[in-house]
Specification:
With 69 residues, the protein is an all-alpha fold. It is built from 2 helices and no strands. The protein has 2 domains: 1-35; 36-69. 90% of the residues lie in helices and 0% in strands. The protein is elongated and about 80 Å long. It starts with a helix and ends with a helix.
Amino acid sequence: MVLGYLLYEAVDLGVNVVKITYNGARGVYYWWYDADYPEVKREKQAIENMEILTKRIAELEKTLKDKTD
């Protein structure tokens, strides 16, 4: 039982070390090359698309109002 617990903790520690190393290296890479994370790029693109759609809706509402008058 103790051996299983020690193996579990060793694997858990190994996984966490790999994750920290990967995330740290990824952060340094994007910082060094002054680039945005892909997640940030997708979020910015989604916000930009929403702004475009909001403007189009406003234009369509204005056109519809002008046609009804």
